[in-house]
Design a protein that fits this description.
Blueprint lengths: L5 H18 L8 H32 L5 H28 L23 H7 L5 H6 L3 H15 L4 H27 L1 H16 L3 H38 L3 H7 L1 H10 L2 H15 L4 H14 L2 H17 L6 H17 L6 H12 L7 H33 L14
Length: about 425
């Protein structure tokens, strides 16, 4: 018998949860534990996953033996496009404000929630932890990310024997955490069942609240999709046209198969072989560039994911009636960038990493339950944007290295 794919399992769980919460509200307590267990499991893996993924990623960059001019160009492009994506998301979520305007009945859950009000300078200073173990215990994400960056960077500075030993260690640690995370993701339908059933049962006596939630989720989806559209069909093509002198449509035709694969699988890692094949054989980029730029991009360049995490965090804050200050929104931008770097190229990785952004500004992780229902379809779109950005980067970097591409006859006249 063919196994039902995970996204269908989640959709079925949501439908069952809605029916259960509406008609069996008095018995929700018997399945609520599944949602609690799922949330505890997510919280359990956040800190070690971030520590090992970022340390492993940075250490492996240094291990590539190509961190000179090519590495600088690659990192600069990835940081630039990610920041542009997050800025687009931040603008759209503040402009549309999808979480404001409906009584979602969530304010009660965040009483006593402590939101940081320290200055930006104090925030920067407090990134450096006095005790890294205390930071791990308390899920101080900015401190954990900072420490992970230090570990990854200085592994590259060790002698070859120690470098190889520690590199194997952080890679093994990251692989181990991904195994655990993948196990948790498999239980997502049960977690969704518990979380959504509880939410629906609490709102079952208030039809206006349910309608409000549906409207706000629809507006949230529109916000994410609008921001992804702006980034993918305006910002990235303009960069490709003016810096690479390439017609974006020519490159889009070459990338049709990888983009469709990314959309259907929601996995930039699974799409990587197809992306490399398209960039080398159809675009004419050398293996030297593709073998360095694209695997690195599949690891750290997640424009769509970074944009989504920013919008999701702001939406959850709006839904809970929490107004984030300018400094806190800057923290959301910074942690969205760093969390997207740490996100694995697998389905629903962004959903796991959103907990990093929420924790950084003191927002309740339970807010993830608000966006679970529509996450899968958004995951498909943001993964396609991730792969599209990676491919544009490889073209730009190949051009900057003086390579002659197969687009020569379609190139924009300087």
């Amino acid at each position: 018998m063919k196994k039902i794919e995970l996204h269908w399992q989640i959709l079925i769980a949501i439908i069952i949860a809605i029916v259960y919460g509406l008609f069996l509200a008095d018995y929700v307590k018997y399945i609520a534990w599944m949602g609690d267990l799922f949330m505890k499991s997510l919280k359990m893996v956040v800190a070690p996953l971030i520590l090992t993924s970022i340390a492993s990623g940075v250490a492996n960059i240094g291990n590539g033996g190509n961190l000179g001019k090519l590495g600088l160009k690659t990192i600069s492009y990835y940081l630039l496009t990610s920041v542009l994506a997050i800025s687009t998301g931040l603008f759209m979520v503040n402009f549309i404000q999808p979480g404001i305007g409906a009584d979602l009945g969530l304010e009660q859950e965040v009483k006593g929630l402590s939101i940081a009000t320290e200055s930006f300078g104090d925030t920067l200073i407090n990134i450096i932890p006095e005790n890294i173990f205390e930071a791990l215990v308390n899920n101080q994400m900015l401190s954990i990310i900072f420490f992970a960056l230090l570990i990854g960077f200085f592994i590259t500075k060790l002698n070859e024997q120690n470098k190889a030993f520690l590199l194997t260690g952080v890679n093994a640690g990251f692989e181990l955490m991904m195994k655990i995370t993948n196990l948790i993701i498999k239980f997502t339908p049960f977690g969704v069942l518990g979380i959504v059933a509880v939410t629906v049962s609490e709102q079952s006596g208030d039809s206006a609240a349910l309608i409000g939630i549906s409207k706000r989720l629809g507006l949230y989806m529109i916000t994410v999709l609008a921001a992804l559209t702006i980034h993918s069909i305006i910002i990235l093509p303009l960069i490709l046209k003016f810096f690479g002198k390439i017609k974006p449509l020519s490159h889009l035709k070459s990338m049709s198969i990888p983009l469709l694969t990314a959309f259907s699988t929601s996995s930039s890692s699974a799409t990587l072989p197809l992306t490399m094949e398209a960039i080398e054989n159809k675009a004419g980029v050398s293996n030297k560039v593709t073998s360095f730029v694209l695997p690195l991009g599949a690891t750290i360049n997640m424009d769509g994911t970074a944009l989504y995490e920013c919008i999701a965090a702001m939406f959850i804050a709006q839904a809970y009636g929490i107004e984030l200050s300018f400094v806190e929104q800057i923290i959301v931008v910074a942690t969205s960038l760093l969390a997207s770097i740490g996100a694995a190229g697998i389905p629903m990785a962004g959903l796991v990493m959103i907990s990093v952004v929420l924790t950084a500004v003191g927002l309740p992780l339970e807010g993830i339950g608000l966006i679970l229902a529509v996450d899968r379809i958004l995951d498909m779109f943001r993964t396609a944007v991730n792969v599209w950005s990676d491919s544009c980067g490889s073209i730009l970097i190949a051009k900057s290295e003086g390579e002659s591409l197969n687009y020569s006859k379609d190139q924009v006249t300087p």
